[in-house]
Amino acid sequence: IIKFKTKKSIDDFRKRQEKLNEYGLIAERFVLNFETKRLKSHPLKEKIQRISDLDVSAGFDIISFKDDNSKINDLFIEVKSYSGNPYFYWSSNEIDLAKIKGESYCLYLVNRDEINKEGYEPYIITNPYKNIYSNSSQWLKEAMSWRFVKI
């Protein structure tokens, strides 16, 4: 079955991109606050920060700590916002970093429909390269676009 997309003007596209950026910023701020609360007794909790403000190509959004015993930032968090059933788009850069960082890399999936509810916590996937990208019967992987390079 061939699915055809409906027409979108450049203004519609820009508005959609702005809305997605807003969702991402809200989700990142939520996770930053979540991490600060999770690590409230960590002596270096002020070093939990949004990296996406400094480097959008870092491959992660927030740097944090795995636990209260961590002496250095050792948790790399990629934040994804969704509505309804969990889904996310994952760039090749993010995938590469997840592969390198292994257990130190997490996806935090933030449900926009639940984010303002008391006690809400994001869906956290540790080592998503291993647990989703390389071996998962719980997630469907779909190509949204392909890059072609002349050889």
Question: How are the SSEs placed, and which strands pair?
Answer:
Blueprint: H1 10-38, E1 49-50, E2 62-64, E3 75-82, H2 92-101, E4 105-111, E5 123-126, H3 128-133
Parallel strand pairs: 3-4
Antiparallel strand pairs: 1-2, 2-3, 4-5
Tell me briefly what this model is.
With 151 residues, the chain is an alpha+beta fold. It has helices at residues 10-38, 92-101, 128-133; strands at residues 49-50, 62-64, 75-82, 105-111, 123-126.
How would you describe the overall organization of this protein?
The chain is an alpha+beta fold. The chain has helices at residues 10-38, 92-101, 128-133, and strands at 49-50, 62-64, 75-82, 105-111, 123-126. The longest helix has 29 residues, at 10-38. The protein has a five-stranded mixed β-sheet, sandwiched between helices. It contains three helices and five strands, in the order αβββαββα. Helices cover 30% and strands 16% of the residues.
Using the CA coordinates, give the radius of gyration.
Answer: 17 Å
Strand percentage, roughly?
15-25%
Shape, per Cα inertia axes: globular
Low-confidence stretches: none
Class of secondary structure makeup? alpha+beta
Please tally the helical runs, counting DSSP H or I stretches of 4 or more residues: 3
Main beta sheet: 5 strands, mixed
Helix content: 25-40%
Q: Would you report the number of β strands?
A: 5
